[in-house]
Description:
Blueprint: H1 9-34, H2 37-46, H3 58-67, H4 72-83, H5 88-100, H6 107-114, H7 120-136, H8 142-149, H9 154-163, H10 165-168, H11 178-187, H12 194-208, H13 212-221, H14 226-238
Helix pairs in contact: 1-4, 3-5, 4-5, 5-7, 6-7, 7-9, 8-9, 9-12, 11-12, 12-13, 12-14, 13-14
Amino acid sequence: MIDRAGVSGRNSEQWYARRVKRAVADIERQLARAGTPERKRVAEWYFPTQLAVAGVAVPDLRRIARSIKVAPDEVLPLARALAKSGGFEARAVAYELLARHKTALDARTVEELGRGNDNWGLVDSFSVLVAGPAWRTGAVSDATVRKWARSRDRWWRRTALVSTVALNAKSRGGTGDVARTLAICRMLADDPEDMVVKALSWALRELAKREPAVVRAFLDERELAPRVVREVRRKLETGRKNL
Length: 243
């Protein structure tokens, strides 16, 4: 908790900015210590990115995120700074931090936090932890998500689809939303981009857990990528994505 007693005005802003900067540096040091060369090679292959990769395993990343002591009014400034730091894992920590504190966000801030995501790992974390919950609560509008679905950037199109997971997954606080999920799925049903095809499969498989009949009807409604049909039908028939 920040003690602002005796600090006000411009001096307060400068002091506050320095505190956030020090917090980012401390988190980056923790990530660097937790990273390994082997994990770095795997991550750079699995999540190709222009961001700096430290090579931190997911359990360690989440442990670091949980260890951060921050006042409610510090969460968003710190998350913004982490997202802008240029680090792959730092961005992931920002999303974990926002989700853990259930930080209220508006659409402009959500888009700011997602700008620059260039790999499926960060896109998926951002979508299920930040963008999807903001959409579910009404902080992000249907029109904004439809805008993402129309984007020339494949990562924003994937964000639109993966955000539907937060509408439907019980583990993410979802209660089910057929209309909004299928609206985005229809918009991207013909998208040939592999990252979008995989996200479409995920969105439909998550909805299938709640509304199997609706998803079966959607599969019969139009021609979809073979991967989507195969994975979703297998989910409907066996409860699994793969055999």
